[in-house]
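Dear H.,

Thanks for agreeing to be a second pair of eyes. The structure we're designing against is below in token form, covering all 246 positions.
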């Protein structure tokens, strides 16, 4: 592939990364270096120009560098693992609430057949859709501007559910009904108190409980001095998983 007007490009300059959409007025200054549209047009992914490597962005680049965020998002280190634990595939239907900035939905939608999502706040509902539209994502997502507690949901319909709201324990019974027998419930919870509430609330209706934390530590990639980065994100959330019992 070679880059043209309208494409998104990931520019890697030393240890910095920039995600930009190419238009005829495109120009990026880093230190004393300037790279412009005419330097990039027609170049292939992997090429270097003026110290910038030109690459096609991955979904992780898009979420971390391209999505506008007005809520806490689920970081890719967590959402990719959740996607795996949900057992997503093109035959599966996923239920998700709330949507927030749309980051976790963007990951799940790549692997699931259908994703049905609910967001109670109008500003976040529009924000998520804007993020998806900008990057041509989430074509298989059906979004509703609605409080999930008021949503009409078919019973035994979903293969799996992901809940990212403050008090997920309030919705346990409704999610249980919506899931097929054996279906996976996943949630992300910032505090241990919330995990305890969720464990208590799901004891009767769910089985195979798991609580997991994913720690992600990046390394400085100098082969002469390989060592971790000085700073890391120390905590995002606890990941909660359980299966619907009948
Ligand atoms: C932390 S954000 C979700 C972030 C999202 N998972 C992401 O990765 O971008 C939580 C969202 O849940 C929404 N929310 C809270 N209660 C809700 C409910 N009962 N029904 C639907 N959405 C709800 C909030 O408005 C907020 O946008």
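And this is the sequence the design step returned. I haven't edited it by hand at all.
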């Amino acid at each position: 592939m070679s880059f043209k007007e309208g494409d998104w490009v990931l520019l890697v300059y030393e240890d910095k990364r920039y995600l930009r959409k190419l238009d005829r007025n495109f120009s990026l200054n880093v230190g004393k270096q300037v790279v412009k549209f005419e330097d990039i047009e027609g170049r292939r992914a992997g090429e270097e120009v003026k110290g910038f490597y030109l690459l096609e962005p991955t979904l992780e680049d898009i979420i971390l560098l391209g999505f506008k965020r007005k809520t806490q998002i689920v970081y890719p280190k967590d959402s990719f693992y959740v996607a795996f634990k949900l057992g997503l595939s093109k035959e599966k239907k996923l239920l998700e609430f709330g949507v927030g900035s749309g980051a976790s939905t963007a990951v799940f939608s790549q692997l699931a057949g259908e994703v049905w999502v609910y967001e109670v706040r109008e500003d976040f509902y529009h924000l998520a859709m804007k993020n998806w539209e900008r990057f041509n994502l989430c074509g298989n997502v059906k979004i509703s501007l609605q409080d999930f507690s008021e949503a009409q949901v078919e019973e035994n319909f979903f293969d799996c559910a992901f809940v990212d709201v403050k008090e997920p324990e309030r919705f346990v019974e409704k999610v249980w009904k919506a899931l097929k027998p054996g279906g996976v419930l996943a949630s992300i919870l910032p505090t241990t108190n919330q995990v305890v509430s969720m464990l208590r609330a799901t004891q009767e209706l769910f089985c195979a409980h798991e609580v997991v934390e994913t720690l992600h530590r990046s390394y400085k990639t100098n082969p002469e001095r390989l060592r971790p980065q000085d700073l890391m994100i120390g905590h995002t959330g606890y990941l909660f998983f359980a299966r619907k019992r009948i």
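Two observations from my side: The two ends are 51 Å apart (CA to CA). The mean pLDDT is 97.

Warmly,
E.
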